[in-house]
Write a structure and sequence with these properties.
Two copies of one chain form a homodimer.
Chain A (H helix, E strand, L loop, with lengths): L2 E7 L3 H12 L1 H8 L2 E8 L13 E2 L2 H5 L4 E6 L7 H10 L3 E4 L2 H17 L4 E2 L11 H6 L6 E7 L2 H12 L4 H10 L8 H4 L2 H15 L18 H9 L3 E11 L2 E11 L12 E8 L3 E8 L3 H18 L21 E2 L1 E7 L2 H12 L5 E3 L2 E8 L3 E2 H13 L3 E10 L4
Chain lengths: 415, 415
Amino acid sequence: MYVAKIAVLGYGTVGSGVVEVINTNNEIVSKNSGEKVEIKYVLDLRDFPGDPVQNILTHNFDDILNDSEVEVVVEVMGGIKPAYDFVKSSLLAGKSVCTSNKALVAAHGDELMSIAKQNDVSFLFEASVGGGIPIIRPLNRCITCDKVLKIEGILNGTTNYMLTKMGDDDMEYEDVLADAQQKGYAERNPEADVEGHDACRKIAILASMVTGKKVDFTEIPTEGITKISKTVMEYAKALGASVKLIGSAKFEGEKVWARVAPTLVYPNSPLYAVKDVFNAISVTGNMLGEVMFYGQGAGKSATASAVVSDVVELVKYKKNIYTAWTEEKQVLSDTSELVESKLIRVIASDTEKAKTAVKNIFGVSEFTTLPSKNDEFVFISQKEAQGVVCGKIEELGKAEGVKEIKNVIVVEEIC
Amino acid sequence: MYVAKIAVLGYGTVGSGVVEVINTNNEIVSKNSGEKVEIKYVLDLRDFPGDPVQNILTHNFDDILNDSEVEVVVEVMGGIKPAYDFVKSSLLAGKSVCTSNKALVAAHGDELMSIAKQNDVSFLFEASVGGGIPIIRPLNRCITCDKVLKIEGILNGTTNYMLTKMGDDDMEYEDVLADAQQKGYAERNPEADVEGHDACRKIAILASMVTGKKVDFTEIPTEGITKISKTVMEYAKALGASVKLIGSAKFEGEKVWARVAPTLVYPNSPLYAVKDVFNAISVTGNMLGEVMFYGQGAGKSATASAVVSDVVELVKYKKNIYTAWTEEKQVLSDTSELVESKLIRVIASDTEKAKTAVKNIFGVSEFTTLPSKNDEFVFISQKEAQGVVCGKIEELGKAEGVKEIKNVIVVEEIC
């Protein structure tokens, strides 16, 4: 059996998982690749005395780049520098690359795919979205005869864990954050997760795959979960629903909208039951209807499994497999055009007057209150263009009896 | 652009869906195939005056077989005869075939894949399991570096609809069956669905894909939903759970167990939230953990979309894509070895004596009762080998105070 030599860049959590998957399941990996898969190098700045990886460890990327035996490079370092340079030079040297690095794919995927194509090698990134969940390859190989109308998903496990805890265990934001940090789900600096930046890059990748053009993640309106509290979750529960951080993209004719926002999700959505650190991505096609992919969105072994499934493809198919999207830019439409409802939480100085203002401005007279909160209520606005709703919210904020508009949350539209 | 000519065998529900998908989404289908996809023939015994399909309709399969221009044959007639003969001769004539026909795949898939390989064409069957849900290709192209430990799924939409109605709408079996028939979800003769035969063929296909050997569906212990009643669903609810018809296969070393059975599923399983006609298939890998694929398990457009996604693969890749399993037979292990719990429903002539018997025989003293049912209760047995449990159930059936053991339901094991 021919031996395919690969190199792993980075021996952190995912990197050590990749080494473990390839070693533990070598028979399966090799059988499905059609060649024996062998790790020739692991690149890391650190040393790992006592770890068998030490025998194949290098601190110098050039060892890998200049070794013509290495046909697949696995980039699991994370970050843009030096990952971008390493991946680019690997592709230019005729080596295929796979990565779990969503930041890299969202920022430079278009260019790297184009370089891969020119060199008849591939740049794959199954693990960059949804961790272990197969989603990139299914989008590329299964959902191939549908016009995709919508992709939406719970794309970040940390925030989903925090929202689950707030809702089910009645905990406050600060306490669930501390708990998530203590469990290793959240970083000491949790910004990338809680501000929605991580989910934003992932929905940018998915939307780019659908349109075949580059969706610039910096242009996606992104709101995280920092304004969500135990109280908001109580209101959601009182409405028979839950709040999830949803990354979504909608496609209508030439128009594309993308967004990351806390969203009120009802039990008739398959995303409702997705709890804790799990992720799920739902894809709606014009023929297929809605399909959903569910699983562990992070974690060493699950993510590593997705990375190694790319290695199998690369070893098996050698040549350029596909270019998911080109360098052409996808223009995003203004989300203020979206016609939908919002859950609006009003803190009142005079509850009756505030409710009257809602009736006059929004034409809504159904309110939800919590026994423990006398000076506030929520309501769900009628479906209309978000631009219009924003104007009304501003008007309501100034109305007599209204102290503050505390939360405005998207209400998921069920197809 | 090169034009790929295809033929569709059968203009029933799925067949007309295939024609619709290819015509409506022709631009997408052709772009992803790399060639313009055109339907040259539709085979059906009937005529369809007024339907544009009439122009490409033939009643004679030989027209298709002898036309060297036809490179892909889509078999959506269902049943074994004459589908098997048509598929076999198409493959022997060097045409690739895709099918939605689970009966054909479960009975003759091994032989047809082997013929396809010998002729360097392919036999694909994405739509045979889970309707529109991508599962065959993900198993084959994504879950390629894991040892699969378990596959289980809600594989039949009709029975899932019926169970949902019994549980949520408090309806009796006969009424939900009539309702499902009226809605077109269940056949006039509902046996294939309600007795579990349909789910049995699907789990046989999935298990064969995992082992690479032929799992004989006639050897899979199969129980349908005919013994499930509104009362059973009430007990499940009282236990905070639900009953689903689950097709499952477990893999441990060289051992393989497969089964179809009504199963008590708790909310911590992702299958719990799968309601109505939806299907879901969960796959557990030794590295990946659990991933689940969810969507419409039947229906014209969704199933047709899966069929056409196979057409795209066949037109794009031409040569033999893969052989999912060989003609070698997979020996199935005895499910009486499985160590698990059962939900057991006891009708008592003397409730106290019956409970004492349960305590003595099963060592269980936790019982669940319903306010409306005085002379009966359920309990959950401790985890032990099913062979042992069966012996105890027999003993309990003869014990004083016990009138009848009315239901015995598998309790889903959460990994």
